[in-house]
Write a sequence for this structure.
């Protein structure tokens, strides 16, 4: 089914892209500075939540981009 194909494409993308661009790297350093003020357990919980949200958003954006691109190609080829 197409869900499996999208998952496989995303997995290949996730494994192939290089390190984070500077703005993302800098954002995580800034987050780390805020987290240093928290007890270790809270620090870990907040960082884990932020990481899960980032991954979920990246996955959704990737899948949506593929789907919108496919619809655009289809619509353009019908004209």
């Amino acid at each position: 089914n197409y869900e499996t194909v999208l998952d496989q494409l995303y997995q290949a993308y996730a494994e192939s892209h290089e390190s984070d661009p500077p703005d993302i790297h800098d954002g995580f350093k800034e987050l780390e500075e805020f987290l240093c003020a928290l007890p270790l357990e809270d620090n870990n919980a907040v960082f884990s939540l932020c990481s899960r949200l980032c991954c979920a958003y990246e996955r959704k954006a990737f899948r949506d981009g593929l789907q919108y691109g496919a619809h655009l190609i289809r619509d353009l080829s019908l004209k």
In short: The helical segments are 2-16, 22-35, 40-78. The radius of gyration is 17 Å.
